[in-house]
Every structure is written in structure tokens, then in C-alpha cells.
Amino acid sequence: MIGEEKIRRLAVKNSAKILLIVLDGVGDIPSAGGGTALEEASTPNLDALAGESQLGLTVPVDIGITPGSGPAHVSLFGYDPLKHEIGRGVLEALGVGVELTPEDLAARANFATRDENGVITDRRAGRIPTKENERLCAMINGSMGDIGDVRVKVYPGKEHRFVVVFSGPGLSDSLYDADPQETGKKEKFVESSDPASEKARDTANEFIKRLQEILKDEAPANTCLLRGIAKSPDILKMQELYGLTPCAIATYPMYKGLARLVGMDIAEGVSTVEEEIRELSKRFSEYDFFYMHVKKTDSYGEDGNLESKIKEIEEFDRLLPRILELNPEVLCITSDHSTPAVMKSHSWHPNPILIKGPHMRRQEASGFSENSCLKGVLGSFYAKDVMQLLMSHAGKLSKYGA
Amino acid sequence: MIGEEKIRRLAVKNSAKILLIVLDGVGDIPSAGGGTALEEASTPNLDALAGESQLGLTVPVDIGITPGSGPAHVSLFGYDPLKHEIGRGVLEALGVGVELTPEDLAARANFATRDENGVITDRRAGRIPTKENERLCAMINGSMGDIGDVRVKVYPGKEHRFVVVFSGPGLSDSLYDADPQETGKKEKFVESSDPASEKARDTANEFIKRLQEILKDEAPANTCLLRGIAKSPDILKMQELYGLTPCAIATYPMYKGLARLVGMDIAEGVSTVEEEIRELSKRFSEYDFFYMHVKKTDSYGEDGNLESKIKEIEEFDRLLPRILELNPEVLCITSDHSTPAVMKSHSWHPNPILIKGPHMRRQEASGFSENSCLKGVLGSFYAKDVMQLLMSHAGKLSKYGA
Q1: Chain A nearest CA to B34, separation (Å)
Q2: The whole model's pTM is what?
Q3: B25 and chain A: CB distance < 8 Å anywhere?
Q4: How distant is the Cα of B137 from the closest Cα of chain A, in angstroms?
Q5: Structural domain for B188, as ranges
């Protein structure tokens, strides 16, 4: 990528629409005796589309590096993932709809249980029901009070998960998690790795102690674990960087949070791919950039469930014609990272990518799979450069230099 | 690229000759129902050469970025085009043969016309004849005088175009053009975006006012527009960076200017490809690096004239044996950027590249086209790295590290 200052200089507005569809974790490696999910799935619509598109492979963050969802998406949105690190706490906070300011520090928290000796007996407090979580969060917000000049607020998530936001001056985030990682171990408190983060450390630890006091008569949750404590990254919005009016259509909080971070408007209340497409159609005239996220290809990969991953791809393929009807000037279908079912985890393998738009070179390989993409006319490149390509195909980037 | 300090350390001199031929804008995309210019052209000599060379694709500046001629050439000459930005004024000045010093500020200027209210009535002063341009420039040089401690000189170009060079201490170039961009709009003066550039701003605006005074009784040109006002980049010569003795053979001023910028000797008085080859032969024993520029493949691309672009390629192919007779140790044929005839403009698509020299891997694709190059043994890489490859094939780069 040519850098934010230069991109801003070259970006021009026009009416062309860019649609970026992320099939989360769809990239795969072959299972024993079989193919990858994309190879095994029957995808007549994707295959036909691939025949009139350009194919390639993208490296999500760097060669051989397995990315989390944060950096993998940051790259696809056209930002350098090595420059813009996004703490897990920040992602969670954005996911529950909190708008963070540069003063804020966010942590991902679990309700948990401890015994009288401070040994963690359940890191998830028996996965308490979300309703119970909401009740506990209300109690905490009612009784916590400020910690010095720092305001504290907690936000319930699902089951045992919640988010803490610390708001005040002088909070830095060189911090280690307050989480022993295993049940049966002694509880941990936050530690800091530089003097500038000591105030944040002390504030977080005071929060844990007050929370233990507030919940002392509660069961099963009588403490919490704090993880991924981080400040919101100072990141330029897509509006400023690319001159786009962007909209995100996603079902899971974290992806909405990632999109909100770079300035996207968020479609709320959407929970299936069909609903996502309906929302996309409804909003299609209002924006010039759409990010649509399909979650379950990743979830089934994480579960090691190749069969369901294949079915999810086939379901997307069945719905694809409804997307094509919208006729965006530039369409991109890719994954943020690979989630091979045989690995049951994210991996470093490059993402298959398909781009259809004006001004294409001839694509000779066909079908949409890891191996057809390897032979693709786009070659292999870094995911952080995808936006430059989409912008140029859409006529939204002027010439660099004379 | 490994960086200038390391390249200087590794560069060694020997007698091997490198010939870099730039078929400007030759890279293409397929026309409707047809192929690219390289595919459509009948090029028996290029095809035979491709069969005994290595092929690949280069990204001129970055994925999806359309480069101007400046950055596209800077890359090919082995410099980072994102680090060395070259203002349009500088290119124009170099093109008319001005040797710029680090104190100089150069602007690309148009003779134009304004009415008594300062509204621009013709941005090109009716494309006045070059002779007339020369007369006006002589008048201006005769009457302008110094502006404070800044000397000013103008140089006629073709038709309405000329170059202004401001020479003096303390001139910085964070400046905006003095050009309303459209006729019928009020004239503009130069503005600066930082305090360090205020002296340059004031000097440029005083120049415009004095010029208006000098030309007040002239028609059709009674004012000027100033664009691309810039200082000469502080760039290491190829002699220092690569230890080469370089020579440029080009027909158009801008390309000679670019070559002069990196220290090349310039062959003057050459206006056709045949003359370029004659000049190349004549100078072949004197230098160890030659850059030969073929302009018209780009010009016809810009015109959307695929047929003439094809003919220009065929004409080059016909002359190619005379070049091959010279038997340079390393021969490279490529474009600086693509200029697809169907787009009538530069584009971001990678450049086909052919390199013949000692120590090649086996090339399995054949013919010289965008798609044979996609399958080439060199793969896809950044144009700024081409020089490293040419230097190594020529035995002019020693090992990095022990």
C-alpha cells in the first residue's frame, strides 16, 4: 500500500459501488483423501462468476502468519494490520455498540467464580444465562462508582461475557491479562509492562476488587477475568481515507465493531445470510461501499465440521444470484483468513479472492477454489492492497504522479 | 528492494552491458472480443526472443495504483517511487534541458488569456505556435528581473507550454497550483500549505503579476497558469547507487529529463526508433547501461488507437534484430506502466517483462504477452526491483552477507 497520505490524495468520489463479501475463514486445506471446502462444495453460481472475474490469492497479514479476525479484517478494509493493532477488548466494546473515545480503555471480561482462597474454580461461571449476566452488570454499574478520576461502565454480552470500559485521563494499555488461563489456579491481577500504564493497571485491579465486593453474595459469579485490555486505535475513517460512504452488513457483534471502527454505518437486526442480502438490497442506493460478512463458514471450520462448512458455501452459492442482481460495479468475494476444517482453527494460508469489475485482464483458470485462484490473473498479493485494486476498478483512484 | 545503502555496498563494476528497453504503455487489457496489443501484434522476433528469455510481470508502483510516467520510470531505474516523488514542474524542466540545483523550484506553465476582470478566457491561449511562445519567453526573460534574491528564468516548450525556474535560497514546495482548471473561472494565484513555503508562494505570485504587466499588450497570451511547482528531488545518481555508466536514448523531453535526473548521459537529436537504434549502436562501447525509450506504444494507447499501437509493436519487432546484434549481456524489454487502448489512459495493470541474460531458470511459457508473462518464471514482482535482477544477471551485484 502506498500509505494513507497518498491514498487520501488520490481518492476521488464517483457513483460506482463496491461490494466486498467476506466468507469468513472460507480458505481451506484439503482434508485427507478429499478436497477443500470450496472444492467439495457444489457451487454453480460461484463457478460461473469466477469464469467472468479475476482470481488471485491474498496473504492476510504476512507470509506464514495466522491472523485473528481483527487484523484480517483491518487488512481487507485497506489498512496496514501491522501498524493498526486492535486490542480484543476494543473489538468487544465496539461489538456491543460502545463508541470509544481516545481516552477510553476497554477490556473483555468473563464472569467467573473463585473460592475463598482466590483460586479460580470456573473461568466462565457455568456459562450463566445472558439474563443473569444483564442483572449482574446492572448491579455493578449501580454500585461501582468512579475509581479516582476514571469512570467505569460495564456492558453485558452473551452468557458469561461482558465488556468493561474505563474512561479517564492518562490510561495507557501496556498491560497483561488478569486471567490464570486455567481453572484450579490462583486468580491473577493486571500487570503493566511500562510505567505509563501503571494508572490503568491500578484502576483495573481496583475494579476487580470492588466487583468481588459487589458480587460477594452472588453465585455462581463472584469475580471476573479481564483480557485484551486496550485503547481504541487512532484510525482514519474510510470516509476520510478512501472518500467512501461505507456500510457494513454483518450478523456478529465483533464484525460490526470492526466495521464501526473504520467508520462504516452498521445494519442492525440481521441474523441470517438471507436477511443480510435483503438488507443489502434495501440500502444499496444509499452507499458506495458495502462490506457483507458471512460468519458460519468460519464457525464450522473452527468446529472441524467440513460437511457443514461445505453446506454453508452451497447455501451462499444458492443466494448469490440475488446479490448479482444488484449489479455492483465492483464485486469482490474473499475470506479474511483461512479456517481449515482439519485444523479447527484460523491458519496462515492465503485467501482465495475473486474480483469482478471493469477493465479486467483475461482470466484463464476457472472455478472458485484455492487452486484456481493460485493460477489467477491477479497473482498473489497482500490483503491490505485489495482496497487499492477495488478502488481503481471502480474508477475511484486517480493517477499517482505525472 | 534492499535499500540504497546496501545496494551501494553490493554494486561492483564489470564490462557487462545492460540494455533496458521501455515500450511505453505497452501493457494492455483485452479489447472486446479481441486480445491485447501484444497478443494481436505479429511479433516473430519478440516471440523467438521470449522463448530464450525469462518472463514475468511487474507492479509499477503498487497493487492497483495507476502511475504517471515519473514514478513508473523512477521504479524501473531502481528507485523507490514512493520515496522519490518528482513534481511535474521538475519533469518539465528536465525535459527542456535545464539542470536543476537543490535551490531551484520549477513550474510547468501555460500561456493563457484573461479578461479585464481576471477571468481566464483560454487556458491554452489558443495553443499559440511554438515560435510565438519563444518570442514571449524572450520578452519575459528580458524584462522580468530578479524577485528579491530569487532569479527567474523561463524556457519555451511546445505550443502554449513553458517552464519557469526560480533559483534562490529558502524556496520550499508545499504549494497549490495557480490554475482555475476551467475557462470562465476567475484566475488563481499560488497558495502554500505550510509557512516554509510562503516565500516561494509570494515569489511565484509576483512572477505572475510581472508577467501580466510584461504581456499586457500581447494577444492572445496575456497571463499564465502555474502548475506542479516543485523542487528537484535529492536523488542519488545511478553512477553512485549502482556504479553504472548510464546512457539514455529517448525522443521525448520528459523521458530524457527523467534519465538526466538519475545521472544518465542523454543522446540528443533522435526522433524515431530507427534513429534510437543507430544511436544505441554508435554509443554501445562507451557505456555499460542503456535505457532506450519507445514512446508511441503509449501515445496510441492514450488515443484509444489499438490498431496503431499494434503496428508500433510490429515496427519495433521488425527492428529488434538490429538490437540483438549488439549482443548485450543483459537485455530487458518491458513497459513502464500499461496504457490499455480500451481505457485511453495509463492503468494499474502489471507490466509484461522479458529478461535475457546469463544464469536463467527454465521458461516454459512462450511468446511475449500479458498472459505468457503471468506464467513466466520470474513471477510477479515490483518494478523497483527490476534493477536488482538486471544487475545480478550482469554479475554486477555481490553477495549480501557472508
Answers
A1: 11
A2: 0.90
A3: no
A4: 24
A5: 91-231
